[in-house]
């Protein structure tokens, strides 16, 4: 692992960012025959619905990987946050539709995590659970470890991040979903690991971006990369303790009002699609913002060979859901270094406890009797 400059106070967070390439290789090795058999038997059903769920970053993981799973499985795949399912279960769950629920959870201790799986069991006649988590002692893992209708897949122990923000935990769970239900294989994992290592080698350039101390950051992307933009914005908001404003949108949607957020102190990060058709729309917004604010106000990240991309990664041909796993390393570094520039402690940006690693204070209310079938 590269040496960390003495003046950098990244603590555990930077180590957890930089361990990701090796952690991803480990994730690929841990997907065993039992896991592939469990999933394979379910996705063979033509009527199967897949729900990807989690809270916060774990919810955004679903939004990022859903397009790839939808194309690969040719099945209905919906990304729905646990927070939405818990508060409005009848809006999202269908009793007569066989459903596989894929739960993402770093610890599995978020109040909504187990509550969601219980609601699914109550409101869906034929339901199965795939639990992707980093903590075998967490409530989600313990609840489902001995059930015939559930499979718990534990990520490598080192991905149970101790830093405040999810980094290696998030990308490892995303990759596990793409390996089990999507197009990922050992070759694509190695390609992503190589791409992330190349990005780590440029971390001083990312630190230089952070040193410009912009007050506003905008992240844009299309399709799966809109989910990536949302996670990127959250990462920066979390690690700067809300002191730096961040925003996300799709490349086309940004013009419809949200573009008002741009000012002379904004840095826009645009993720370019690996799809040539979609990439045209991403490049159009890059050109437009550069024309308004100047070249230095936009960072475009794309696959090798992409026009207008100042930062490229060898992810061409992998598809956007997979490319997002590697692109996310850039967003993590930028959030980390911006946090440090603003005098925050990335491992614990909220020392007074206003925001916690595992959400507290949530009351799970019982489902009314009249709401039950």
TrEMBL record:
Keyword Cell cycle: no
Keywords carried by this UniProt record: Isomerase, Repeat
InterPro entries recorded: GatZ_KbaZ_carbometab, GlmS/AgaS_SIS, SIS_dom, SIS_dom_sf
TM regions (residue ranges): none
Listed PROSITE patterns: SIS
Pfam families xrefs: SIS (PF01380)
GO biological process entries: carbohydrate derivative metabolic process; phosphoenolpyruvate-dependent sugar phosphotransferase system
Keyword field contains Transcription: no
SUPFAM superfamilies: SIS domain (SSF53697)
Domain of life: Bacteria
Sequence ranges assigned to domain SIS in this UniProt record: 39-189, 205-349
Coiled-coil region list: none
GO molecular function, one term: isomerase activity
Gene Ontology terms: cellular component: plasma membrane
Matching PANTHER family: D-GALACTOSAMINE-6-PHOSPHATE DEAMINASE AGAS-RELATED, N-ACETYLGALACTOSAMINE PERMEASE II COMPONENT-RELATED
Protein's recorded name: Tagatose-6-phosphate ketose isomerase
């Amino acid at each position: 692992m590269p040496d960390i400059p003495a003046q950098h106070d990244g603590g555990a967070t930077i180590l957890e960012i930089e361990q990701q390439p090796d952690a991803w290789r480990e994730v690929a090795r841990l997907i065993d025959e039992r896991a592939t058999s469990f999933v394979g038997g379910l996705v063979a059903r033509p009527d199967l619905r897949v729900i990807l769920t989690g809270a916060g970053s774990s919810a955004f993981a679903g939004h990022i990987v859903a397009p790839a799973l939808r194309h690969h499985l040719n099945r209905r795949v919906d990304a729905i946050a646990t927070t939405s399912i818990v508060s409005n279960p009848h809006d999202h769950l269908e009793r007569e539709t066989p459903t596989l629920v894929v739960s993402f959870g770093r610890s599995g201790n978020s109040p909504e995590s187990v509550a969601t799986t219980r609601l699914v069991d109550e409101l869906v006649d034929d339901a199965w659970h795939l639990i992707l988590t980093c903590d075998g002692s967490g409530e989600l893992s313990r609840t489902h470890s001995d059930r015939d209708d559930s499979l718990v897949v534990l990520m490598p122990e080192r991905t149970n991040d101790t830093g405040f923000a999810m980094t290696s935990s998030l990308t490892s769970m995303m990759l596990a979903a793409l390996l089990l239900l999507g197009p990922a294989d050992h070759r694509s994992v190695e390609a992503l690991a190589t791409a992330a290592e190349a990005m780590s080698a440029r971390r001083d350039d990312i630190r230089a971006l952070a040193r410009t101390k912009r007050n506003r950051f905008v992240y844009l992307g299309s399709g799966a990369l809109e989910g990536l933009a949302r996670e990127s914005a959250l990462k920066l908001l979390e690690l700067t303790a809300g002191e730096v404003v961040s925003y996300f949108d799709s490349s086309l949607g940004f013009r419809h009002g949200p573009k008002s957020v741009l000012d002379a102190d904004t840095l826009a990060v645009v993720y370019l699609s690996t799809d040539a058709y979609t990439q045209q729309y991403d490049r159009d917004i890059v050109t437009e913002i550069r024309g308004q604010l100047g070249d230095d106000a936009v960072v475009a990240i794309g696959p090798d060979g992409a026009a207008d991309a100042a930062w490229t990664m060898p992810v061409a041909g992998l598809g956007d859901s997979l490319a997002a796993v590697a692109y996310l390393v850039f967003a993590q570094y930028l959030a980390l270094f911006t946090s440090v520039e603003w005098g925050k402690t990335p491992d614990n940006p909220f020392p007074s406890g206003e925001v916690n690693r595992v959400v507290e204070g949530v009351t799970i209310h019982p489902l009314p009797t009249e709401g039950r079938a």
